[in-house]
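job 3f2a | input accepted
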Amino acid sequence: MENILRPVWKKVFNFNWKFGLFLILVVCLPRFALVLDANATKNYGYIGLVMVVSALAPFIFLTRKGLKEIGITKPKNYRWLLIGFFIGLIISLLLFYLGDYIYGDTFNNWYNYIGRSYNIPPDIGKEDKVAMFLIMAVTGMVFSPIGEELFFRGIVHSSFAKSIGDRKASLVDSLAFALTHISHFGLVFVGGGWNFLLLPTIIWVLGMFMASIFFFASKFYSGSILGAILCHSGFNLGMIYCIFYML
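job 3f2a | predicted structure (247 res):
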């Protein structure tokens, strides 16, 4: 534990749950506000910056030993990289069918609300749609999975795990991840005003929580944070495909 934090930070922090809570507050609260603002203004430029900050956090605070501690290491089970990817894909499809069955083509449907941020032209041609899908898919499979997994399943999880163990820490980082995503869906900006959709939000948060548990499981069984990243990538690919071709 002594060699996990860089020397400059050891004067201020211990690598424990208090440090993890500090990271959640410093990163997730501004992110929550920025996403809400982006949903209202349609300016999503700062969201990418949040992902960059999330991805850089481990490298800012941790030593080489610390980076290995949070899972930035060679996988021990490569099969689980592929398994994790398909688990994420399946979860995203299940969430689509659940939302479509309960709420149909309304903004109570999480994918329908999130999909409007993609600004897909209603009269877009087939080839242009494929090109736009590929751009969105590659972006969605790279940036947010790397940023969010290095942060939530990486440095945040490991700091809590030092105090309460891996299982309880997984519940904490999953809850933080799920609640943060209320800014993406739950507190919605529709018709020029804000609305809080209680029951759809509960379902969405539970979905994000369960997805996070599987992200951690993929990290655990693969022996590397790459497992969580690929599981998250699979989820994002499925979500983006549903938004483009199934809504």
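job 3f2a | The chain has a mean pLDDT of 96.
job 3f2a | closed
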